[in-house]
Amino acid sequence: MGRGRRKGSLRGLTQRERDVLDRLYALGEASAVEIQTALDDNLSNATVRTVLRTLVEKHRVSFRDDNGKYLYRPSVEAKVAARRDFNRITETFFRGSAPAAVANLLDATADTISDAELDELAALIDAHRQERQDND
Q: Does the structure show a pLDDT above 70 at 55?
């Protein structure tokens, strides 16, 4: 498969753009050189800068000038982006069913999820249920 859009990528982003954006989410804020260094790919600095410019044009990344050094950061907080992506994935693959999406996650992690993590998920469900009752 080429470097174009991949199945499952964020709408409107190429694989390379997604890789740069993922790395930027991990770093928080970084220069093109820092992003280039953090990527597993052997991308040139010019390529990283071109991808960043495209992400700025797509309003996925913003930047600031720090005394002549451009520092880039995602335009949307990771939590907001994750929620948006999860909602899109839930709509696309699970017909909008959150229980089906969570069941898939549990199936996919059945061999690695700990009892403590399952207890944490159960506690989150109970807390959301209680919050809903409190608001009624």
A: yes
Concatenated DSSP letters for 56-69? HHTTSEEEEEETTE
Quote the pLDDT of residue 111: 93
CB 90 within 8 A of CB 98: yes
Helices (H), the chain: 15-27, 32-38, 45-57, 78-94, 98-108, 115-135
Cβ neighbour number for residue 84 with a 10 Å cutoff: 13
Say how far apart CA 70 and CA 62 lie, in whole Å: 10
Which pTM was predicted? 0.67
- Written as six digits, the tokens of 114 are 């700990």
What the block records as the tokens of 48 is 């990283």
Q: Please tell me whether residue 87 adopts helix, strand or coil conformation.
A: helix
Beta bridge mates, 74: 61
* Residue of 126, 74, 125, 127 whose CA lies nearest to 98: 125
